[in-house]
């Protein structure tokens, strides 16, 4: 039996929705904001399997508790409770989906990319993603387990 085009569309829609499923994350010190949702795409299961040579989309929805002229992202790979800086292409939050200045009580969608370079080792670690305001206080901080793989 050949599946109907409608059945194929429904199956594809379900698969796409599964790829954008909100992640379980640990809040690691959001002070000046509150995280509503974290999405890493594609990451259908946890820990997220991050394939070398691939770039992943990050989308964090958060509400700000403060006013801020700007924001800056810092990303780390946490191994044995040591934070190792992880470079991202655009650390400026105002160039990553957030309309600045940031206003108290407003919700924002922070969008960025997480490139996984081919030279990274194949290991399990924790990704820690921070966004700080212009006073260097945490708008948000979240952690998820990942596994870098070939």
Automatic annotation (TrEMBL):
Pfam families with a match to the protein in the record: E1_DerP2_DerF2
GO biological process, one term: cholesterol efflux
The keyword Signal appears for this protein: yes
Gene Ontology cellular-component terms listed: extracellular region
Domain MD-2-related lipid-recognition positions: 25-146
Subcellular location per the Swiss-Prot or TrEMBL entry: Secreted
UniProt KW Signal keyword: yes
Keywords: Disulfide bond, Secreted, Signal
Molecular function via GO: cholesterol binding
The name this protein goes by in its record: NPC intracellular cholesterol transporter 2
